[in-house]
Write a structure and sequence with these properties.
The chain has about 675 residues and is of the alpha/beta class. About 30% of the residues lie in helices and about 20% in strands. The longest helix is centred in the first third of the chain and has 17 residues. The chain binds iron/sulfur cluster.
Length: about 675
């Protein structure tokens, strides 16, 4: 274990000279970035660089914050030479600065007045600590079920807190839950908790249900791996996806597959690759031929043959599988077939660490958690930390449940902003944002090289704001370790030392993730016969694919730079389907799933295959502040008065229809 030896930059002389020149010219804006340093063009003062980790998404990029003499955050950039992102930073990472200086950021706790959902009044931190302590004690004395719904990945710390308190509780850590969904599939497919693509040396890359140029687990590393493989090895990239994604659009070939038919495609590729004379078991491949595979998957046979040729001549194949596959009922079968395909064409996946107890984590799905609250005969004390279940699939029914005092007798929210869920809380406690916090961020940047990046505070939190878990610990009089102490202890346990501000802030650890070339790989006997899966029958309906976008997500819609770039969420529909339904570009269309419905504007295009419509997540907030709603207003931030996107609306919330990746919907002109 060692700190990663980042390329040290000989930038100081250049920075000084260039900075002084620019300052003298004074011709451009306020700042110049010169080889990793910033200098103010108005004052000539250098801005102090401090390295940390970005926590806006799980990629864990190394970022450098520039801070002025008064301790204000001036800007952020990527760290050159960092193993995850090598100097790059995305729009979301940059927008972390918006959250800091957000005019609607809660700087003090707020308590509900006149009942939940009516309004709040700001209170002092001491008053919030004693109110939270009282709420926790009352709930414990009443024998309440404690329910924690959190966007952090600290379920064991929450569990420890519940144990110390001596109460029964349920903990839903949403990031860990998502990891567990993948781990459970892979555990059943391979006997290993999580398997990921090994792109080193790849000459053919297939992508199923993933969009690594835009998002998903380890996507930065995967995107870099793909680019490296194409540049160094001339690797060919084939993307099976019903949407022409960011990755598909940059591939050698986009194969627009019908959603839910990946197993047939994988089996067919296997059959053509390993059994050109049709000698292998009919039991597996029965009925699978050029015609049926086209009818079933919608991918032309000649395109499939092209992939087979690439696999055959590849020498080394790598297959990236994403949540579009993990979310399917056939996920285990697909994973096995793709692993066998990969191995049959000279590739091998690697095994990574993940939750071992995936099943118990999955027992507490978001739906089940709130179902338990609805059915509970006991009072429920709810703590939400940055989560927003009403927006994210819960809808009006959950809002009613949270608003009424019958089931949820107390709701404490830890969040820096008011949202669709915590507007019904008794108390909202703002907490330190990632750039004000300590943390340790794991990521994989190459198959065998997991990395940890140190997240250190680069800005001072407002006076009344602390780490959310530290707040709850103080309020309840429990003794879980404070956040900073937990991080320092973890680093000490791993035999590292905390780097100084000027040193590389990441660590390589070759022991954290066991890697194997062949353990538990499936054989032919593990394949499920093709005939066991029915053709997806659409009954005149469309498959709605709900996807993530890089620029926006559910908790960033109030970041002004992002909202300005991305504020519409049109329903992508193929031009042939639109013509049949009489839908024109920009028309209002109704999308119905069971008793849920939304109205979106149509984006008529060729970027989705016929029979499929697509929407992104993260838009259409109803109560997440004025920036997300596109409303201009007068505040200390002069940009707030310049908001213009409200006249185009703020998109639709796909979560109002579903939390799933793909569902069947009816689409009509509204
Ligand atoms: S990819 Fe994720 S971790 Fe990296 S800068 Fe963007 S938001 Fe931050």
């Amino acid at each position: 274990m060692r700190t990663v030896d980042l390329e040290r930059r000989g930038f100081i002389k250049l920075g000084l000279a260039a900075g002084a020149g620019l300052a003298a010219s004074g011709a451009l804006g306020a700042l110049a970035q010169v080889s990793g340093r910033h200098v103010s063009r108005t004052t000539s003062n250098f801005h102090r660089p401090i390295d940390t980790a970005c926590r806006i998404c799980p990629a864990g990029c190394g970022i450098r914050a520039f801070v002025d003499g008064a301790g204000n955050l001036v800007t952020l950039s990527g760290i050159s030479g960092h193993p995850i992102n090598d100097g790059k930073i995305c729009a979301r990472g940059m927008a972390a600065i918006n959250l800091h200086y957000h005019p609607e950021r809660l700087l003090d706790p707020v308590a509900a007045v006149n009942g939940r959902g009516v309004g709040f009044t700001a209170i002092r931190n001491e008053a919030a600590l004693s109110q939270a302590g009282r709420m926790i004690r009352d709930a414990k004395n009443a024998g309440a079920l404690f329910v924690i719904d959190t966007e952090d990945d600290e379920p064991s710390t929450w569990r420890q807190w519940l144990d110390q308190l001596g109460v029964e509780g349920l903990v839903l850590s949403r990031p860990v839950y998502e990891r567990a969904r993948r781990c459970k599939v892979d555990f059943e497919a391979f006997g290993q908790p999580y398997v990921h693509a090994n792109l080193d040396g790849a000459r053919t890359i297939l992508v199923f249900g993933a969009n690594p140029f835009e998002g998903g687990p380890y996507y930065i590393a995967q995107a870099r791996g793909i680019v490296d493989a194409r540049v160094k090895n001339g690797a060919k990239l084939f993307v099976f996806d019903s949407r022409n994604t960011n990755t598909a659009g940059r591939a050698d070939r986009w194969l627009p597959i019908r959603p839910g038919t990946e197993y047939a495609a994988a089996l067919y590729l296997l059959k053509r690759l390993a059994d050109p004379r049709n000698e292998l078991s009919d039991a597996i491949f029965a009925g699978l031929n050029d015609e049926t595979v086209f009818e079933y998957t919608g991918v032309k046979p000649e395109r499939m043959h092209e992939v087979v040729e690439a696999l055959r001549s590849s020498g080394r194949t790598s297959i990236i599988v994403g949540d579009g596959v993990f979310s399917q009922d056939q996920a285990i079968a697909i994973r096995r077939a793709l692993a066998l395909l990969e191995r049959s064409s000279g590739g091998y996946p690697v095994f990574a660490q993940g939750p071992q107890d995936a099943s118990s984590i999955l027992d507490i799905s978001p739906d089940r958690l709130y179902g338990r609250i609805a059915d509970s005969s006991r009072p429920v004390f709810l703590i939400t930390r940055r989560s927003n279940p009403v927006y994210d699939g819960g809808g009006p029914a959950l809002a009613m449940l949270l608003r009424g005092p019958d089931k949820v007798t107390g709701h404490l929210s830890i969040c820096s902003f008011v949202n669709e869920t915590n507007q019904y809380a008794d108390l909202i406690v703002p907490e330190a944002l990632p750039l004000e916090e300590w943390g340790l961020v794991p990521a994989i940047y190459r198959s065998e090289s997991p990395t940890w990046t140190l997240q250190r505070p680069v800005a001072k939190a407002p006076a009344a704001v602390m780490n959310g878990l530290d707040f709850i610990n103080t309020a309840a009089g429990t003794s879980i370790l404070a956040n900073e102490r937990r991080v320092r202890d973890r680093i000490a346990e791993m035999d590292w030392s905390i780097p100084t501000e000027g040193e590389a802030n990441c660590f390589e650890n070759h022991t954290a993730y066991p890697v194997s070339q062949d353990a538990s790989m499936p054989g032919w006997e593990d394949l499920t016969p093709f005939s066991e899966f029915e053709s997806p029958h659409q009954d005149g309906r469309f498959a709605l694919v709900v996807h993530d976008s890089n620029v926006m997500n559910a908790s960033l819609a109030n970041a002004k730079w992002l909202a300005e770039i991305a504020h519409r969420n049109a329903l992508a529909i193929h031009v042939d389907d639109a013509t049949k339904l009489g839908i024109k570009q920009g028309d209002a269309v109704r999308v119905v799933h069971g008793d849920r419905r939304i109205v979106a504007s149509a984006f008529v295009c060729q970027s989705v295959r016929p029979g499929v419509v697509a929407l992104a997540r993260g838009y259409g907030h109803e109560n997440y502040g004025k920036i997300a709603a596109g409303k201009r207003w007068r505040t200390d931030d002069p940009d707030a008065w310049l908001i213009w996107w409200g006249e185009y609306g703020n998109g639709v919330n796909a979560g109002a229809l579903t939390r799933e990746k793909t569902i069947a919907v009816k689409v009509t002109k509204a």
